[in-house]
Input
Amino acid sequence: MTLDDHSTLRRTLAEAAASLSENAIAPQLVAAAIKAGGAQLTAHGALSVETGAFTGRSPKDKFIVRDGLTAEKVWWDNSGAMTPAAFDLLLADITAHLSGQNLFRQDLIAGADPRHQYDVTVLTPSAWHALFIRNLLIRPDEGIVKSEAATPVTIIHAPLFLADPARHGTRTETVIALDMSRNLVLIAGTHYAGEIKKSVFSLFNFHAPRQGVLPMHCSANLGPQGEAALFFGLSGTGKTTLSNDPDRPLIGDDEHGWGDQGVFNLEGGCYAKTVKLSAEAEPEIFAATRTFGTVLENVVLNDNGMPAFDDVSRTENTRAAYPIHVLPSVAKGSTGGTPKTVVFLTADAFGVLPPLAKLTPEQAVYHFLSGYTAKVAGTERGVTEPQATFSACFGAPFMPLHPTVYGDLLAERLRMSGAQAWLLNTGWIGGGYGAGKRIDIASTRRLLTAALNGELDDASTRFDPLFGFAVPLAVNGVDSRLLDPRQCWADTDAYDVQALKLVELFRNNFKKFGRQADADAGPRLAEAAE
Output
């Protein structure tokens, strides 16, 4: 689909609309959202909204058009398939549904590197969704020029349209449908704004590897010499918190590409979790929630219009969407050089993994493909112990290709860059959840700083007999006993039992990759469990 084809589609929707607001800025969108109802200003001027029944993504309602381009490339075990005819019918029905409505159009950029850039147009009947995506993507008038060669993308957002499974081939009345050949996205039946943001990332994840670019669900910042660091981690591991450092300019907090010229942000904003947010623990993010134009999703407000970040009565997945420029320290142009450090974050609720471990390139690929963290006990009825969570490449729901495609790209990037990879555990020590304690943030920050500034490059290490990685014996400013989790358990035999259990979970998860996954850490885990 050419730019002219996208222009025709966009024009068709505009001509059928009752009115069209093009590239409205924050004050205009805030006013329109409040006028439409369902949105209100907080005491400090952020826009508070609710997303209704959907307070998170609907991964099982996501579909990719199966055609000549995608049939042999997409990891169909991880993605629903839709026929081209069903997509076209859905497109026609959504277009008819939007006819006569007031629409908001935002023309934005995805990709700070002009060599790998998308010209994204979002059309929606919702002013606050238009503000959300304006905050999250790159605004063309803010220092990053749109390339004439940028790939056109059109996203049509119709939250009130209900799909018909019998007619459209969907699972439910909610649908997120992506046509990778034409770079069209249809979103319907959900008000959760994260679907818009992640659809852009899904398109990028499909196309970027063909250009030799590694797409990454990670945050990134810059050191004092301009060296980049990457932070991979699932929700709750500290990715956003640890990458927001006033002494290290932020490249971006969630979606990046790693190409021959270095790292670049796909976005122009941040989508931070706000549950239990405080000015003391996360001052930069807290301040952003008090900025005019920030969108607060599902955050409960008290009678004075102040956010109650500890209130999770709506959902624990409360969020703040704000443009990156409201942060005090950001990287110029949202780009950075070749990474020097790659950090894999995990919150191990089993109390097994050390707070910090040095990885070989092969081990880095293994942990990248595993994408491990653990949910704590007590979050669901009947759950009495931690539960392992594995998400390939730390972002399986957004990875249309087989994980090993991304794993191979990471291996190549590590080889070419010489970047050092680390595993940083922000979870429990001295026992699993309920018995041990969470590793304190001060120790985590000290360990991270030591890994980033090179002071551990030649440090003495011990060999972990189960996982095979190297664990520092001492880190200045950290109790050395903390670095050996086994010695922190009152019952070392109980630690051994729990450790072998975790090893087995890793092994079982890795089996799904089959022979395609080539990581030396896998055999070591297998040997350790026998």
About this structure: The first helix runs from residue 3 to 16. Residues 237 and 422 are 14 Å apart (CA to CA). Residues 377-383, 515-520, 525-530 have pLDDT under 50 and may be disordered. The domain at 3-50+61-269+328-334 is CATH 3.40.449.10 (Phosphoenolpyruvate Carboxykinase; domain 1).
